[in-house]
Amino acid sequence: MSYNIPVEDINTLFSMVTPPDFNRQNSLMKTYKVYESVITNIVELTDTEKLFHLQITDPREAELFSFLPGQFVMLELPGFGEIPISLSSSTLLKGHIGLCIRKAGKTTKMLHKAKLGTKVGVRGPFGTHFPMEQMVGYNIFLIAGGIGLAALRAPIYWVNEHRADYKDVSILYGTRNPDRILFGYEFDLWRKVYQYDLHIIVNESNESWSGKVGLITDLFDEVKIDPLHTYAIVCGPPVMFKYVCTHLNKIGVPMNRMFVSLERRMHCGMGKCCRCMVGSTFTCVDGPVMDYWTVMNLKESI
Amino acid sequence: MLFKTISKDKFREFVNGMIKDHQTIAPKMTDRDSNGKAIYQFQQVYSFDEIAMDYTKTYSSVKTFFLPFKEMLSTFRFEEKGWKQDIEYTIHPRVIMGVRACDVDGLLKLDKVLMKGTFPYAYYVARRRNTFLIGLDHEPLEDCFCQSLNSDMVEHGFDLFLTDIGDKYFMQVNSSRAFNLLKNVEVYDIAQEDQKKYIEEKKRIASLFKAKIDVTGLSSLMDIEFESDVWKKWGDKCLSCGSCAMVCPTCYCYTVNEHIDISLKSASKERVLYSCNLVDFAEVAGGLNFRPKAENRLKYRFYHQHRGFVESYDEPKCVGCNRCGRACPVGINPVDIIHDLRMEK
User: Fold this and answer.
1) What is the rounded distance in angstroms from the CA atom of residue B94 to the CA atom of residue B19?
2) Distance between CA atoms of A142 and B117, rounded to whole angstroms?
3) CA A102/CA A122 separation, integer angstroms
4) Torsion sign across C-alpha atoms A38, A40, A44, A45
5) What is the SS3 assignment for B260?
């Protein structure tokens, strides 16, 4: 007889061989494996924000990568860090990812120094998405504050691509000052090609600015909302959620038709590290997109 | 589950056999404190004689061997153009023995988080599946309140579980590998007398608990008392040191650190255990902190234990070992906080 304990290879365990929920072709256990991607284009949007175009290198992995508007990826810079970033590109382009990134911390500062051709890693996509199918036949209000527009770009692309499915689409965008306006070059496209009702407001004006000055809630005076036939998608700083959603709720938009995208610190994206926990819920697994009713019921969420 | 008995001599022979072939971790007396009391810790042992079968408590739990404080998640090799990622999570089979019921229950709770669901945590799964776990019953200490949380007994999550019934151990055999290994030594089917002794011993242990908390409706109480002054009272004491999470058998939150090797040829990605009491736990890029005060963070810790975890898995995350209470430098402990919340004294 012997005291040998047989080795259990976890990759062959029955429960472990089914592929995971995100688009991974290899065995389930490689949850920390990244897709190797290359930076194909860098668009300077403002002094602090850049739009990075990434392409997943492996054609098979690129084919497998698909996401829905509102989801995010974990972007890996080997040796520097891994950060959660909202996907802000069209869902139709296989393996092609657009990420709008603000220079805010150690990793993003490094990323802003990156040149074309730099190789980075991508894990994901993770999280919940805006229920675009549910919104078919309704008016849509997209409300963004500051960098929140980055997360709304994926649903905007979605609406562009399925324009006939949706009725009136309005975009309300508020930002600190005219220099920080993101994606300004797309505004004409949105207005003229896709017939969006686009309103922009800034907190502080300067000489170049001839538009509105004030808070995003001031824009509600300009637009007409049909509360029973409208879905709202809101993304911005936490303080904005409260004012915008309270207003929408007051005029009668049902709470379960308002969707917000929350921001939290994340270290895994898979409901393990606990860093993104709000009240009793993981932002990475049960969020980042949640309806306002859910958000209201989470402690310290906004 | 099968029930067997084994004489203490034979058990010693069994353990020595296991030690010869595998890394074996067991409670061991490592030092004495200033009062001359023994200090025990789970450590690797090289013979049965080193094991303190009568140990009272260990400051850290066996979690340390499943979720080590630091762990390599992956490494990156830099190349001419770009880099390559390597991931390693294999582990040799090993034995951990002398684990209390509450610690086994703690592992069961970790299993729910780290082994199940969409994204299993491979590093933990490898360790858990390749560990032969031997549990051991004990008399509760003054401050153990595991009975209140149903963690004083476990039915699964181990390979063998021992209860001392005089000159032999009453054994619960819970895996085929345990059954096979027991063929190395003489074990006996249980006699009526053993069964009687076992039940009596279990009853005796159950009657010794002194500390208690009332968990009835605790999860909704957490919501109701969210703005309670109790959190400020205890939060003002909290030093935000994170000791509680380090010793907790079920705390699993972590941070990820990346380093570039000094040769500039590789980089590593490391997981380091963290604590929700540490100040930057919920701080996002740009400096906004969602839980800026010690009281917010302390409250969140309890909120997750008795509300968040209950919502996900229908049981509290706490196992009632009171390790956090013992480790806290300022005397914050779950029994007092929950009594305070319930306005009991």
Assistant:
1) 9
2) 33
3) 17
4) negative
5) strand
Interchain CB contacts (distance < 8 Å): A and B: 166
Determine whether the interchain pair B132/A5 forms a contact, defined as Cβ–Cβ distance below 8 Å.
Answer: yes
**Which ipTM was obtained for this model?**
0.85
Average pLDDT of the segment spanning A181-210: 90
Which stretches of chain B are DSSP H helices?
8-21, 63-66, 101-114, 122-129, 176-181, 192-207, 218-224, 229-235, 243-247, 294-303, 309-313, 323-327, 334-341
d(CA A247, CA A232): 12
Partner B contacted by A146 (CB < 8 A): no
CB contact under 8 A, B282 and A7: no
Q: Quick check: B318 pLDDT over 60?
A: yes
Peptide bond just before A288 cis, omega within 30 deg:
yes
- Collapsing DSSP to helix, strand or coil, B337 comes out as helix
User: What's the CA dihedral at A98, A267, B289, B245 to 10 degrees?
Assistant: 170
Q: Mutate one of B21, B115, B119, B228 to test the A interface: name it (highest A CB count within 10 A).
A: B119
Contacts of A165 (CB under 8 A, 6+ apart): A136, A137, A159
- Per-residue pLDDT tens digits for A204-223: 888 888 888 989 888 888 88
Whether A22 shows a pLDDT value over 60: the answer reads no
Q: Side-chain half-sphere of A225: how many Cα atoms within 13 Å?
A: 24
Quick one: which H or E segment has residue A244?
helix A238-250
Say which residues have a Cβ less than 8 Å from residue B195's Cβ, sequence separation at least 6.
none
Domains located in chain A, CATH noted: 10-126 (2.40.30.10), 139-296 (3.40.50.80)
Backbone region of residue B339 per phi and psi (left: phi > 0; alpha: psi in -120 to 50; beta: other values):
alpha
Burial A178-198 (b: 16+ CB within 10 A, else e): bebbbbeeeeeebeeebebbb
> Residues B316-341: what's their mean pLDDT?
92
Q: What six digits make up the tokens of A193?
A: 């090609």
Residue with tokens 């175009």: A53
Structure token digits, residue A77: 């810079």
* Nearest Cβ partner for A5 among B22, B113, B255: B22
CB-CB under 8 Å, A119 with B81: yes
Cβ pair A264:B282 closer than 8 A: yes
Looking at this protein, which amino acid is placed at residue A126? F
Provide the CB-side half-sphere exposure for A181 (13 A, CA): 22
In the numeric block, which tokens belong to residue B147?
A: 């009975």
The closest of B279, A290, A268 to A278, measured between CA atoms, is A290
Q: Rounded CA gap, B104 and B47, in Å?
A: 23
Phi-psi region of B117 (alpha: psi -120 to 50; beta: other; left: phi over 0): left
CB A166 within 8 A of CB A197: no
Do the Cβ atoms of B270 and B71 come closer than 8 Å? yes
pTM of the model: 0.90
Question: What sign does the dihedral B19-B24-B30-B36 (CA atoms) show?
Answer: negative
Q: Which residue of B has its CA nearest to A108?
A: B285
Handedness of CA A162, A165, A168, A171 (dihedral sign): negative
Q: Among A119, A271, A300, whose Cβ lies nearest the Cβ of B117? A: A271
